[in-house]
Amino acid sequence: MVSIVVPVYNAEKYLEDCLISLVDQTYENIEIILVDDGSVDDSGRICDCWAEKDDRIIVYHKKNEGVSATRNFGIQRARGKFLMFVDADDMLVLNAVEYMVKEMIKNNSELVVCKYQSQDYKKNIRESNLRIELLLKEDYLREMMKRPFVAGSSLWNLNDFYSESRVDAVPHVNNKGVVGLNREKKDVYWFYKTALSRRPILVIGNREWKSRGGVVNTAQKECVPVFSNAEEVELFVNNKSLGKKKIEDNYALFDVPFVGGENLLEAVAVTGGNKLRDMLRIQFQLVGSQLKDEAVPFTELNVMLGSPRYFEDRAANVAWIPEQEYKPGSWGFIGGTSYRRQTGFGTMLGSDIDIHGTDMNPIFQTQRVGIKSFKADVPNGEYSVYLHWAELESDKEREALVYNLGADSEQTFAGNRSFGISMNGTTVLDDFNIARDYGYARAVIKKFVITVKDGKGVSVDFHKKEGEPILNAIRIYRNY
Predict the structure, then answer these.
(1) 0.90 exceeded by the pTM?
(2) How far is CA 139 from CA 8, 86, 132, 136, 142, in A?
């Protein structure tokens, strides 16, 4: 039997999805131990309701002590031969437990570890990843400080470094450092710095993310951390106060209403009689939800297809935003599905391969498969339309990477994919076969200039010939 220990604290938004993924596992010989760590939301009731539905679920309620103590509480009550940890905001692919047990037995292992993928729950994925990363660091530091016999600790690793076998979003770079290749300090650096420094510190986080983008009518809110060892901090955005927030675990999170163009952020705090200030300028590329809205003049649109992610191309100062389905008056795709690669324990969004001919892997690692059209109801004028592709499915076997711990893609093959493309009714590509003409995992960009008249906007239409049409990204730039 596998004992799955789930620490639960104020997780009402995610808990149902987590539990559905656990009770539906193909490996049924499990017990699910839910430990409610003094939640003050609806989490405790949700746990009890699920225990009534499935007798494999056991619920404990206790006072709040933190995630580590809560896991230990669950371990002490586990009855299974195998022990597994799942967080309340996690979801498992349906064969995850079966696959991991099989691998443990086959290799006579004492420990099995898998990769994970972050999901944004219809929020900014940047905020989700930031919060997860900081929660981990909080837990690490808290546990270290509890132990007076610990005189010091090591951090792996201080800075990002080149690693030829690494691919993913940053090709050939291990980017798990607290500072980047250029020694630019990341948020985790400032977390440790403020936690361990005796001198007063105040720093606005996300400093490396200076160009951003979003889709709204007039403004866009994004989460921005402010790190400090003061008691509270006030954040001003474009000279307007967002109020004061108490510093907890050495930072405070603010929902910042960015506007199009340059945004000035200023943080102010007082500690030990000293007034601290920090400033940061953010360039925000705002795209109105209605493209003909004169209040938000259209200049450009940069979209990654098949992706829920944001990405900053710092060299070109371009902010790429996630896809959306088309609605009249706005922009988006029609038809198709997001590309997902097969792995040994399910599917994962996008590809993990290095894309040749570019340093901008994230733009090419996702795609919409079977797309019928991409429409943008832009005002009349002349536009440059850039279509981005990379064939993510090959006809050649790839070597598995050791550090992927079993998450390597179970390779699928492209076959003979061919399609045509027309723009506003005019054919621009006929027999377009990426693998044949350019090869596998090669960045391909095609530029077309189109004049929009009579309020018709831009319509990029895909015509299937053999296999499914694909599109990885699109950039629409207004010339005049």
Answers:
(1) no
(2) 15, 16, 11, 5, 5
